Amino acid sequence: MFKNIVISVICLLLFAPECFAQYTRTEKTMKIQLIRNATMKITYAGRTILADPMLSPKGAMDPFAGIARNPTIDLTMKTEEILSSVECVLITHNHPDHFDTAAIGIISKEMPIFCQGGDEEKIKEAGFTSVTPVETSREWNNIKIIRTGGKHGSGKVLEHMGKVSGFILTAKGEPIVYWVGDSIWCVEVKEAIEKYRPDIIITHSGGAKVPGFEPILMDAAQTAGLAKYAPKSSIVAIHMESLDHCTVTRESLRFEADKAGISASRLVIPKDGEILSF
Ligand SMILES: [Zn+2]
Cα(224) to centroid of ligand 1, in Å? Predict the structure, then answer.
């Protein structure tokens, strides 16, 4: 009897931290709220990060493909609500659908901003005083932000698109997130998946096309290919139905994923404003 009690106490002491860790994980602290296009509010390790802010109203920018003014839809939330509790901004690259004049005007100039190396001067010129380029990796409030490469297209169009980045986010007790950024399915993306084994992969799956050129973003088939390549990862597909040059719709991506046998719970396509918890 006494022996049994001792064994029980030892087991409790050994496994209690584990149970506690599982309990805290099931609280689902990590959240991704899709705002529109690539703009997301990410709650990670208790911090709130605004990703790729494009905050212009519908039609504020010229067309990219000669089809319609951009963005093609309005925000579903007020900008004050989007910016509330935001503690830093993370920008994959300097194109206007990822950091626009509205965002430059609205976001506090003291807001910490992390960007890819080479984009910092332009952001500082816009008046921001706390701009940190991420060449390889940076640490911010116990969150590691690691830069990954990518290709914003293929063939001739690639020369015009410039450098792009993705980011890995890691923190103790949080899932590993790989935000691919504006890239097609390419060797850099494959290598990042192999190296970091992300739990969650955020893809820009709009299959954007500049007329006469190859796609500059992953399309539906490439996104399904990525999901098959990373069978243990959850995929969150965004950057659709907000800009005139994007050819992939949420419906066409779901159709392609179904065809490839990828479930809606593994490849999630959020609506604008929707909050996903992990
Ligand atoms: Zn883009």
Answer: 19
pLDDT, tens digit, 9 for 90 and up, residues 94-135:
999 999 999 999 999 999 999 999 999 999 999 999 999 999
Centre of ligand 1 from the C-alpha of residue 204, in Å: 8
CA distances from 55 to 67, 77, 181 (A): 20, 10, 18
Contacts of 33 (CB under 8 A, 6+ apart): 40, 41, 42, 43, 273, 274, 275, 276
Q: How far is the CA of 3 from the centre of ligand 1 (A)?
A: 64
Block residue for tokens 């709009």:
206
At 158, the pLDDT band (50, 70, 90 cuts) reads confident
Q: What is the pTM of this model?
A: 0.89
User: What is the whole-number distance in angstroms between the Cα of residue 6 and the centre of ligand 1?
Assistant: 60
pLDDT, tens digit, 9 for 90 and up, residues 197-215: 999 999 999 999 988 888 8
Q: How far is the CA of 46 from the centre of ligand 1 (A)?
A: 27
Cα–ligand 1 centroid distance for 44 (angstroms): 23
Span 28-271: which CATH code?
3.60.15.10
Domain ranges within the chain, ordered by starting residue = 28-271
